[in-house]
Design a protein that fits this description.
Length: 145
């Protein structure tokens, strides 16, 4: 991993993805840029979100963070993963798939580093949201844990 890799932001990205898919049935982001100070996620969607919807997403993510959920990983076979997950971003030649589980809130294949518990993430704050050409972009930052 890069030396500036941010497990807190990465775990928050997973939680944002879960909240977005639950609310909008839009799937996980197709593009993400994770930085220490501010990050962004892009979703394929048919419209922008309202400020009220943005607050709902923010509250959903923060409620899960406050729940102090354990963040665990498990290695499953490629066959198991193909039955449960979208693996289009998975490299060729992989035998096993690492799955990150955030309590009962999110489960997703991932190779990245994560926190051990959501209590380490800090407050999730949506900085902005915008919509253009079928792409709903969300920018967010985190408070201190």
């Amino acid at each position: 991993m890069a030396k500036d890799y941010q497990p807190r932001m990465h775990s928050a990205e997973h939680m944002l993805n879960s909240a977005m898919d639950r609310k909008f049935n839009c799937g996980r982001c197709f593009s993400a840029h994770i930085n220490k100070k501010k990050s962004k996620c892009d979703y394929k969607y048919k419209r922008g979100m309202t400020d009220e919807e943005a607050r709902e997403i923010e509250m959903t993510v923060n409620a899960a963070i406050s729940a102090k959920l354990p963040v665990t990983d498990d290695l499953i076979t490629l066959e198991e993963a193909e039955e449960k997950y979208n693996l289009e971003r998975l490299p060729d030649g992989v035998d096993g798939v690492r799955v990150i589980k955030i309590g009962d809130f999110d489960t997703c294949p991932c190779i990245g580093e994560h926190v051990d518990n959501t209590s380490e993430i800090g407050e999730f704050k949506m900085v902005s949201h915008s919509f253009e050409d079928g792409v709903l972009r969300i920018r967010y930052k985190l408070g201190e844990a």
